[in-house]
Amino acid sequence: MPIRVRTDVPFGNAALTEVREDAKCPEVAFTADPHGGPEACWFCFRIELAGARPERLRLVLKHAGNLLGAGHIPHIRPVVRIDDSAGGEEGGWQRLQPGEPVQAPDGQIHAVWELPAPARTLDVAVCYPYGPQEVAQLLTDCGGYWRADDFGVSQSGRPMVRLSNDYGSADPQAARKPGAYLLARQHSGETSAGWVLDGVMRRLAEIRADDVTVWCVPLANVDGVVQGDYGKDNFPYDLNRAWGRPPMRHETLALQRDIGRWRGRCVPRLGGDFHAPGLSEHTGTYTFAVKPENLNDARLREQTHWLGAFRSALGEYAAPDFLRVARYTSRWETPTATGYFNSFEDMYGVTFEVSYVGYSGGEVFTRARYRDAGRRIADAMLLELRRTPKK
Ligand SMILES: [Zn+2]
């Protein structure tokens, strides 16, 4: 029975899949499918052994150097799930060891892993998958603390879902609570960011933070999430570059309207947008700060305050150069979500970048550690929100 590679799995993505049969150590080659975008990075697929009983299995990530930010092969560490195991906080997923760079005769570099062969199936993904099912699990586990409402549709007509702990009050005479608006997955393949936000949400539910108004969109580019797109710089318009007035994507239009609703029902204090960097970035979590030259003294103090609070709360999960300023060449120079948040004088917008791989001292991120990082962000956020006088 031949070994098969399947991409008809949740968030499925793989291209150029090729199986080289071998009784002892068959080889499965693949690469990430750009799904029409200029960048590729997300992959996710299932290998079915269908009766083959090899001792070991070789995975070959072809064209590794073409994946976004994949400059250092040993820092690429995908996750695998053996024989559909589902147990524990990790859901059966585990990290592969560092990849081995192997040079092809023409000079191309592939990343190679060899591992003990599973009995039936091996699920492979660039990082722990996170989608609608995980959001549903979050809602269940939080026992009704979060309410889910759709507030619009994606460009393919899927519901855009926002979680909230409190609708606040539109009555200008009512006492309003300090508020935060959080989102992740504008770049749909950035699941590391999704797990950290999951941790934020679990922590807020755990301590039943009822004196703040938190709204959260965990799957901003829901089409990309479901379709297994990487989604960074994707056409027709990168979701996180579509935040002009007027916005250039329907998702962004719906988000801007929802942020307007939230702003009218709380004392807006913080906007947070969660992302992942290039594939071989391995120093943990960091932020892209607003360029100091673009801030007045009061806004610069506010930024220093917020980012200092997050950095110290994150501890070992924070990169040594936690406070970065984006100076890379962007395909799209148009406005981002964080820029949109920061266009309001009464709130601060922060971008978190969360490594797909690991953090200080060569430690790897597990789902539990991503959630722990989120827990710490939630604690720091609450402390700061509670310092805000109610209006
Ligand atoms: Zn991103």
Kindly describe this structure.
The strands form four sheets. This protein has an eight-stranded mixed beta sheet, with helices on both faces. It has a five-stranded antiparallel beta sheet with strand order 1-4-10-6-7, with no helix packed on it. The protein has a five-stranded mixed beta sheet with strand order 2-3-5-9-8, with no helix packed on it. Strand 19 and strand 20 (363-364) form a beta hairpin. The protein has 391 residues and is α+β, with helices and mostly antiparallel strands. It has helices spanning 132-141, 191-206, 222-227, 250-263, 297-314, 337-342, 367-387, and strands spanning 4-6, 15-20, 27-31, 44-48, 56-61, 79-82, 93-95, 100-103, 109-116, 121-125, 147-153, 159-164, 178-184, 213-217, 267-275, 285-288, 318-324, 348-354, 358-359, 363-364. The radius of gyration is 21 Å and the shape is globular. The protein has seven helices and 20 strands. Zinc ion (ZN) is lined by residues 187, 190, 232, 275.
Topology:
Elements: E1 4-6, E2 15-20, E3 27-31, E4 44-48, E5 56-61, E6 79-82, E7 93-95, E8 100-103, E9 109-116, E10 121-125, H1 132-141, E11 147-153, E12 159-164, E13 178-184, H2 191-206, E14 213-217, H3 222-227, H4 250-263, E15 267-275, E16 285-288, H5 297-314, E17 318-324, H6 337-342, E18 348-354, E19 358-359, E20 363-364, H7 367-387
Parallel strand pairs: 3-5, 13-14, 13-15, 15-18, 16-17
Antiparallel strand pairs: 1-4, 2-3, 4-10, 5-9, 6-7, 6-10, 8-9, 11-12, 12-14, 16-18, 19-20
Features:
391 residues; alpha+beta; Immunoglobulin-like; Aminopeptidase; 2 domains; 8-stranded mixed beta sheet; 27% strand; binds zinc ion
